[in-house]
Amino acid sequence: MVNINSTNMPPYPQNMTLSPLAQEILTKRANNADTFTKNPPSLSLLQPQPKRVSFGEGVKLVAKGFFVKIKDMITDIVKHPIKTAAAIALTSGVLLALPLISIPTAVGASVIALGFAGFSLYGMGKAISSALRNSQAGDNDALREDLKNIGGKTLDLAISLPFVPKAFNTVKNQIKYGKIGVNTELWNNFKNAKGIKAKYGEIRKANVALINDVNFQAGVDKLQKQLKFDDKIKQEYLDLRKYDGKEFIERAYARMTTDLGYGKDAPRLEILETTSLKRGGGYSGGQHKITMRTVPKNNDFVMSKSETLSVMRHELQHFQQFVDVERAKNAGYGFEKMLNDKQIHILESVKIPAENHRKAMNLPAFREYINNYRESMKSAQKVAARQGEITSGTKRFKDLAKIYKNQIDYQSLDTTLLDSKVVNGKKEIAPVANVFKWLKQLFGYRGQFIEREANRAGGIFTRASSSTMLPLIVSNIQTQSLKEQM
């Protein structure tokens, strides 16, 4: 006969939590002592059950698993440096060799990223499924291990999912626009190059050329959908790749402004060669020009052809925004109203008393600025007349309200016309040369509607050149994490 109060039994504190089965057994014992005596239960059923996992404990366990995974990766690198170096060398060697068969390193890295992301998602799904099963079964010890495992899988997802969208597009574009085959030119240059540094330089140069060519073709396809031109014009864009330097920019600008319907009324093009890091482009409504800033290199420029078209399309969208302001003049917008509102806004922003507004607006520099603006807008007015009126019933009108407000508000350059000027022999206008105010205006502008819209227009072309090192670094981190799971 089993005596539950026997000294041979484990301690049974009054506040002990028993499982439902253990409680049922004790109830049966009380109701039918004989049955209990003949068929004694396993004593393990009467043991205290592990405490249930609370939400707070669960979060801590997941976090612990996350940081333990990081620690294990670092520990493995420190304990096995040769094995780690061999894995890095193998991954890097395979990726760097891809341009020899006309595949950019970014494509190989993207395949690794997609494969790792798929493996990580599978591992996370498996860990969550196990946690749900153990939770339902009441196996709290196993559930705790599952939560730590989920934390480790979270790290895997964190170093894989952010790269998935770009990796997917990279692979998709390579399949559609790229090719696979022996890169004879690179093979010859690689063999003739003296030293590791020179050989790496040849691979890097070929790699950038391959990815930029794919990006250019993909961008032209998107531009065709955006501007709705036929395949003959599309081929003219593709043929631009045989030109370099200024000739490429001039031909591309003439082609794009024609397709946008601007023709001879397009802003004049200025190509500014610079040795500074400030490259890209800019649109000046007051001067009716678009500036393409680039750094000369041999017979070409540092900016890729794809990046050049991106900047060009971006800046031409700013011109279109000015055109749209004039197209809505009958609905309360237009250049005249914008300039009048703009000059009042500028004067108030530099704290000029209202009674001095008229005097300030008669300043020679300011008057010249406004007159030049009006002169520059004549071409935009012609384009606006061809494109037709924008009415308050259209979506574009609602977008225009944001554009109009931002054109009035943004005056970081305009205010310099009023700095320290003299009115009637007196220095009445306060300087606004404040670096913090300038930075606030600059970064505020970057997030404004007019800039976001121009970014979308130019974003059809991939602007940045492909880096050789970034795909290598990311791929090696992912490979190291994968190795920890094998």
Give a nutshell description of this structure.
The protein is mainly alpha-helical and 486 residues long. Helices cover 64% and strands 4% of the residues.
Care to describe what's here?
With 486 residues, this protein is mostly helical. A hairpin with a 4-residue loop joins strand 2 and strand 3. The chain starts with 19 loop residues before the first helix and ends with a helix. Helix 4 packs across helix 5 (105-137) and helix 5 (105-137) runs antiparallel to helix 6. It folds into three domains: 1-49, no CATH class; 55-178 and 470-485, no CATH class; 229-465, no CATH class. The chain is built from 19 helices and five strands. It has a three-stranded mixed sheet with strand order 1-3-2, covered by helices on one side.
List the helices and strands and how they pair.
Blueprint: H1 20-31, H2 33-38, H3 55-79, H4 81-97, H5 105-137, H6 140-158, H7 164-177, H8 184-192, H9 196-227, H10 231-239, H11 245-259, E1 268-273, E2 280-284, E3 289-294, E4 296-297, E5 300-301, H12 305-327, H13 335-349, H14 357-361, H15 364-387, H16 395-409, H17 435-446, H18 449-458, H19 469-485
Parallel strand pairs: 1-3
Antiparallel strand pairs: 2-3, 4-5
List keywords for this structure.
two-stranded antiparallel ribbon, 486 residues
How are helices and strands ordered from N to C? Answer: HHHHHHHHHHHEEEEEHHHHHHHH
Low-confidence stretches: 412-436
Strand content: under 5%
Instruction: Give the CA-based shape.
Output: extended
- Classification by helices and strands: mainly alpha
Largest sheet: 3 strands, mixed
For the largest sheet, list the strands in their spatial order: 1-3-2
Number of strands: 5
Distance between the termini: 52 Å
Rg value? 34 Å
**What is the average per-residue confidence, as pLDDT, rounded to a whole number?**
78
Number of domains: 3
Helix content estimate = 55-70%
Count of helices?
A: 19
